[in-house]
Amino acid sequence: MQSKEFVQELLPLVGGEENIADATHCASRLRLLLRNEEKADISAIEKMDGVEGVFSRSGQFQIIFGTGRVNRVYKALVEAIEIAQTNPSKERMEKAPKMNPFTHFVKTLSNIFLPIIPAIVASGLLMGLLGMVEAFGWITMDSAWMKMLTIFSSSSFIILPILIGFSAAKEFGSNPILGAVIGGILTHPSLLNPAELGNSAPQYMDLFGLEIALIGYQGTVIPILLSVYVMSRFEKVLRKFIPQSLDLLLIPFITITFTGIVSLVAIGPLGMMIGEMISGSLYYVYQYAGLVAGFLLGGLYALFVVTGLHHSLHAIEVGLLADPKVGVNFLLPIWSMANVAQGGAALAVFFKSRNDKLKKIAIPAALSSFFGIIEPVMFGINLRLITPFIGAAIGGGLGGAYVVGSHVVANAYGLTGIPMLAIVTPLGISNAVHYLIGLAIAVTTAFTSTWILRFTEVE
After folding, report:
1. Region for 454 from its dihedrals, namely left if φ exceeds 0, alpha if ψ lies in -120 to 50, beta otherwise
2. Which of the residues 9, 309, 359, 389 could staple to 382 if both were Cys, CB 3.0 to 4.6 A apart?
3. Residue 37 predicted with pLDDT over 90
């Protein structure tokens, strides 16, 4: 079925065009903000061609598709009902469920990182592939092609504070361009990249008698998040006092000047210290509670995905990579075990189920999980049947314990499953071999556990 035809069939099932206040999408889900969810016919939507699951969470009605199709459906939906002409922000705020402070904080982090994930995945994958080329000596690193591709692969990580600044300012209700400028200040070439501290000493400037180290914050997260949050609050205060006729002239100037000074003098160093404390604590747990930590994190990671809070974990992973005392990502291999385990459980459903609808979804959904996209298999199959979700948790736990016990690490983040080989292989062939063994353990255990636990068929 063509996307336009699909949308025309979908609209009556969600209560009509007038019932849609807003629409967004991620890698596999169409997220609709419905004015009245009771008008949606969930069972009918689930039976539509290409739909792999339907659920509601955080005030959004979400429809799961196979990887890649959601982009075409979203485009057809926007063209059909002209969502861009609506003003959903007020409705979104009114319909948003009340959250406790911690949940709201983690959800905010998720919303900030979600838009920049494609850039991180692209750079991480390219960086990993270049690492494999260097490790196996396929092409000399001083060739023009390798120099150019190296620039491409590192760009997203170098300007990461700029990307985060833009996204964070948008999430905090401030000017995204000003957020990007703050990110640019924290990564200015005049500031020493913290990755070079071991080889170069930073310069200092005297400000009001204080010696301020000219150290940049390339590749960091917490300094830019704190800076943009302060910026957004300060900007909102200014708008209450500065006349509208002068806001274009004065607000950006005062906001950037004030936030820039505070960021370099106080927020940046404070954020760096907080980041080092977090990464240091995690590294301590990783070293001294390895197998247990790997089992618990691998088994429970799927719950983060269910709540949509898993994107916030990228902030922690960035901190691990940016910390000179750690420098690697030991969390991502654990998440990868949890993801592929979902696919292993779905394969058991395929071989054991007599439901044609489930069998039709199971194989493509399982394959997507092996390439890092788990929403279709999780919401379309495993959560609906419950016991496959439990089986996947067992598989993810054992796989997580194995990769922690064998010290599997990555040199980037954003990739899981099979593509993650690109960012584990450059760190050593044995690292890649243990990673593959972990994948096999996770998938096999999830398959076996689901087969033993059994499940009740659904229509």
Report:
1. left
2. 389
3. no
Whole-angstrom Cα distance, residue 47 to residue 456? 19
Region of 50 on the Ramachandran plot (φ > 0 left; ψ -120 to 50 alpha; else beta): left
Phi, psi of 61 (to 5 degrees): -95, 115
Which residue is catalytic, options 9, 24, 26, 306?
26
Q: For residue 308, what pLDDT is reported? A: 63
349 contacts: CB under 8 Å, gap ≥ 6: 358, 359, 362, 381, 382, 385, 388, 450, 455
3-state secondary structure of 237: helix
Question: What average pLDDT does range 326-351 have in this prediction?
Answer: 91
Report phi then psi at 26, rounded to 5: -120, -150
Residues 6+ apart with CB under 8 A from 3: 69, 72, 73, 75, 76
How many Cα atoms occupy the beta-carbon half-sphere of 307 within 13 Å?
A: 16
**Residue 261 a catalytic site member:** no
Q: How many whole angstroms separate alpha carbon 457 and alpha carbon 354?
A: 8
- Residues in the chain, overall count: 459
- pTM for this structure? 0.72
Q: What is the pLDDT of residues 296-321, one digit of tens each?
A: 989 988 887 776 667 667 778 877 88
18/299 Cα distance (integer angstroms): 41
Single-letter residue type at 330: F
| 206: enclosing H helix or E strand | strand 204-207
DSSP secondary structure string for all residues of 296-313: HHHHHHHHHHHHT-GGGH
Q: How far apart are CA 257 and CA 261, in angstroms?
A: 6
Query: Is residue 2 exposed (0-12), middle (13-18) or buried (19+ Cβ within 10 Å)?
Result: exposed
